[in-house]
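Re: beginner question about structure tokens

> Can someone show what the tokenized structure looks like for a real chain? I only ever see the sequence side.

Sure, here's an example I had lying around. Input first:
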Amino acid sequence: MWSLRSQSLGVSAVAVALGLLTNSAALSAQDDAPAEPAMAVIRPEALRAHMQFLADDLLEGRAPGTRGYDLAARYVAAQFEALGLEPGGSDGSYYQPVPLRRIRLIPEQSGVELVRGDERRALEPFEEFVMFGHVTHLESQVEAPLVFAGYGVTAPELDYDDYGSTDVGGKIVVLFPGAPPRFPSAERAHFSSIELKQANAAERGAVGILWAWTEHDDRIFPWQALARISRTPSMRWLSPDGVPNDARPELRGQAILSTQTSSWLFLGAAKSFDEAVAAGQRSEPQAFPLDARARIRMASRHEGFESPNVGAVLRGSDPHLAREFVVYTAHLDHEGIGEPVDGDSIYNGALDNASGVAVMLEVAHAFARLPQPPRRSVIFLAVTAEEQGLLGSDYYANYPTVPIGQIVANINLDGALILAPPADVVIHGADHSTLGAIAEAAARRLDLEVTPDPAPEQGFFVRSDQYSFVRQGIPALFPFPGTKSPDPAIDAGARLQQYLTERYHQPGDDMSQPFSYEAGAIGARLNFLIGYAVAQRPERPRWNPGDFFGRTFASE
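And the corresponding structure tokens:
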């Protein structure tokens, strides 16, 4: 859920004032008639049963490339087959193998040393810096002067460029995570992308990056959690010729520095660390040299393996529209076995994301029980390696099993509405395309209010699998739990926050939680209604006029 590796080191705001629906946004009564009995097959008990298996200790946290993940993939494929759905993977199977590279840092052969004048400061791993293995080099070393370049963002359409005329060729750039706060939420999320910043730095000739962790970053994601994640391997998918995705081999060294260490870098510079942080919060572009050099050493191990996406297809009933596809996604993986917490080392991933897969299976069940398939075809896709950077969905979006131009929409299921009875829902992406009006109509039918994203600075819209499709120009939605409940005795927002604080990406995300499976069934019906409406409408979903993602990614 909400991959930290893929985007901001740190949900786009959802506009609910969409106005009255046009006639084309709603289904006719005749078109809509089969939806009600189909929704009736979605049962809370079925959601619980799917989750009970997928989050069991037997599956050992479903890490890609493990026996536990493969068991989960077999389970999902068997459910698809039992529903009578066609295989949607490669070579007539339910599986699409995703070639992956596992990248492990060798800590004892890696390190960061800072130099100012005659002073050389070797940093303490996990305390003063954290580092992940190098994507392309088994051994890499770089020593170079440091240049600070703000957020590392170049956005001429927003009249913003941190680099300006500053030459960073042959230098190591020091960057803040995130993006300027004055950016609209969608743009802020997009420009927070690590990959985008790496590309920008490399294209300007930089040879390395040091990420300066601020107190603001630490409040969003504590340093201790970052240090724990850095002890686990990272991953990339591999192209048919063996090239890892988003690789920048010219960046020969990268590390993340603690707040205190980052502050030391700015001694004697044009601004102090605190002044630079404050300027960043004011969205002021900034770049200037630092009175220091850095030496970064990285030693890594690479291991190739495969982990499958699992896909199935329900063929549409319209002779022409059946060639187009609505794609549901839910990531099947989680973090596997990791650092023990209170004696438990299995990161079961019950909410994240056994719940989303369970919802997708019940949505598939509802579609399969329609008296006639919808006009468009529907793909159900359980993807691998989301937690490692949206890898399974990004691989599928780059190497789809159907022509990419025939995929009209993506609905991503990452975390069910299962923590509390819902009165509202946040639908990330609703304000970017015509999918928003469809989603609001479906929510209204279930007496759910669509509410704005309460934390747009987190950039959730670019941190789950829908973003892999957005990057291919495909409109997408990511429904997410809201903060309201019809029961005044229940604080749904507090329950969500408690989950994020105490169980998210922890062994405690297991089936011992007091889930509301009835609430989960409401969420599943919502997602069914959205996809059914998209599959029935004669026109394809469209990006809203002038929308940032449409301008950036959609083909002419």
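Each token stands for a local structural state, so reading them left to right follows the chain. The domain at 23-93+315-553 is CATH 3.40.630.10 (Aminopeptidase).
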